[in-house]
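How a chain folds remains the central question behind the approach discussed here. In the encoding step, the backbone of a single protein was reduced to a row of integers, each denoting a local shape. We regard such an encoding as a compact summary of how the chain folds. The sequence in question and its structure tokens are set out directly beneath this paragraph:

___
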Amino acid sequence: MKFSVVVPIYNVEKYLNKCVESILNQTYKDFELILVDDGSPDHCPEICDEYAERDARVRVIHKENEGLVAARNTGIKEAKGEYICYVDGDDWIANNLLETVWKKALKNYDVEIVVYSAIKQFEKHQEEIPKAVSEGLYNKEKLKKEIYPYMMYDSRKPFCTGLIFPVAWNKIFKREFLLKHYCKEEKIRMGEDNAFVFECIYEADNIYFCEDKLYFYNQLNVSSMVHSYDERRFDNNKLLTNYMEERLKGKDKVLDEQMNAFKAYWLIMAIFHEVKCGKSINYSRKHINQKIKETKALKGIRTNELPNSAKMYLILLKMHLYMIALIGAKVISKRRG
């Protein structure tokens, strides 16, 4: 079997049929579909079982709710295909995704990863996710020269914008390769794709980048997630960055510099999260003070390697000027809409 398509499912009843149909209608037929029901409280479990009864390519795994990382890991450990493809349960794919990947990359090259382009689907319009890497096969020498120096943080672009869009769903991985590098920290609840995507890109010997727009990233149900407050954001940041440093730190000087910028970026975004979710400045000031101390979020971040805008923010935090940092975040957020 060439492909295993793994779909983690939780509370996506409204979109699940479209997701599954887009996979079952693939023009390339040699695949299995693994639906991982992560203890979904809606009608998703029944929908999954109905598809399994109708199509022999569908396998369903029902499990207790443990989060996205655990659901994906359950799927990849059960997969039998030579390559593994992720699709989130509220997204969908082009009907020629597997065929395009097979014909352009896997038929001719022995690669660990194929990366393809995607479309953001809004209610009334679509937006292409910008392509940063030209199409073609990238061997280790080309990856070292053109990808790794800008993978996580491209200093030629806005702060912490990298060449690699760190999501799982626009990539196909060779199964034996993924089983060595999947995210093993299942407690990560935000940024979980970062935890293993950058490691996979760095460890791969060959990657094929494909310009075809093959994935549809659903933005129809995002607003509630964006504005929901997560008081454990700093704790999640620590879990994420510690895991990534354990896997990547010390392997490459350029990678260490990018990891430093990554840690700074996630800390700054935690500050912006406070104001975007409508918390009072006074509440957020106290919360930030407490969590930065508890998680030691500033420890080890080298400000001299960062652009001036990020450096200024880090200096404010190091001086405990949280009120000024929050007011600045509020002003910037308002200007950006």
